[in-house]
Amino acid sequence: MDEITPIWGILLAAGRGTRFGRQKHDIELGGVPIWQRSERVLLDGGVDHLIIVGDLDGAVPGGDRRRDSVASGLAAITDHTGFVLIHDAARPLITADLVRSVIDRLLIGDVAGVVPAVPVRDTLKRISGDIVLETVDRSDLVAVQTPQGFDLETLRSAHAQVAADATDDASMVEAIGGTIAIVDGDHANLKVTYPEDLVLAEALRSGHHG
Questions:
Q1: Domains in the chain, start-ordered, CATH in brackets?
Q2: By CB atoms within 10 Å of each CB, which of 43, 66, 168, 201 scores lowest?
Q3: Which of 53, 82, 61, 65 is nearest to 162 (CA)?
Q4: Alpha carbon distances (Å) from 140 to 46, 117, 185
Q5: What three-state secondary structure class fits 67?
Q6: pLDDT tens sequence across 47-102
Q7: Which is nearest to 117 in space by CA: 180, 27, 199, 195?
Q8: Torsion sign across C-alpha atoms 156, 80, 179, 188
Q9: What are the b/e assignments for 136-160, b being 16+ CB within 10 Å?
Q10: Which strand (E) or helix (H) includes residue 113?
Q11: Of 113, 114, 111, 110, which is closest to residue 98 (Cα–Cα)?
């Protein structure tokens, strides 16, 4: 990558794994801890410096919330300018091509952030209790994934200005007026949230990722 534009990465491996039933950072996929899979691919895809957040040797400690763990990673970055990719270790089927796609779009320099996104496949309903109120038009809806990439200064500003909790960093950047672009995501880039997700991830890895 361009030496003048440092590309940092923050790998989040600090979640409690409440819905999975235990912490997920030491779960293995194909005999490799899922966080190590993401570590390797992020570096192969163009990240220059990687910070791991979680209860691991050499990592920085996480926080109570996802945003707190990201803030912990941001505090460990020594540069004041450049770009940063945030990735959830619970998405172990990330590819180097996807990482490069996010970085290449960031390097154009016309947006504050870039997120991978895939079209919503299922029909969506708005409900009240157990009653359907309406069917939601999904033509302009996407599901977003990680890694999400940002201008480093802008992401730091978002964390400083937005007090509310957030499920991803893009929503925080949006809240301060930052423009977010999308690149094509990968339906195989699933998030391991429940035990059955790990079974599916293993099947996808065996069939396509190796």
A1: 7-209 (3.90.550.10)
A2: 43
A3: 65
A4: 30, 12, 15
A5: helix
A6: 999 999 998 989 999 999 999 999 999 999 999 999 999 999 999 999 999 999 99
A7: 180
A8: negative
A9: eeeeeeeebbbbbbbbbebbbbbbe
A10: strand 113-119
A11: 114
